[in-house]
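Appendix B. Chain record.
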Amino acid sequence: MLLEYFSGKATAQDVAIWILAIVLSITVHEAAHAWTAYWAGDLTPKERRRLSLNPIDHLDPLGTMMLLFSHFGWGRPVEVNPANFRHPRRDGILVALCGPLSNLGLAVVFALIARGAAHAAMGKAGAGVWVVLLQVACTFVLLNLGLMMFNLLPVPPLDGSHIVAGLLPVHLAQRYERLAMPIAVLILAVLIFSGALGVIIFPVVRALYTALTGF
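Structure tokens predicted for this chain:
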């Protein structure tokens, strides 16, 4: 189904499943950032109404369109104030890391569903229902693994850059952020539109997908 979607040969059902996966996966990703920041002592996500599983609160129009048409995208960033964290550097890393980890968690859950649906569909009446469930589950697994790997890239403003900055000594972190930010948008644009991004992350996504689903 995903190959058909990417090649423009998808059915209405394929597109609907892909959109559902995008909406729910981005929502969980951004909500994970918000709840982790709130747990760390920052009330900003609550004040900005981001402690929610309402997709409207988390979807970025451009990022969602990018996911639909270029297969890479993002949600609306969660505003946080690291000065409010109980342990600013540690909590900053945790807030950044919890977004990709939420996608990994979704991938694991839907991989288990995919395995169950594949088993149930073998030689049984009503297999069509299980095939649709398998299609939905596999879409969620692949999308969430892609989102996880994309967001772990150490390019601002992606989560990976915040993790790297939090691990570096303070003076090096400040230098890293100063040097990276001016060229980050250009780097992302080149990676996405040249196809290099897929070359970088797809082998890892494929390996994880196979390991989780067995397909």
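Further analysis of this model is presented in Appendix C.
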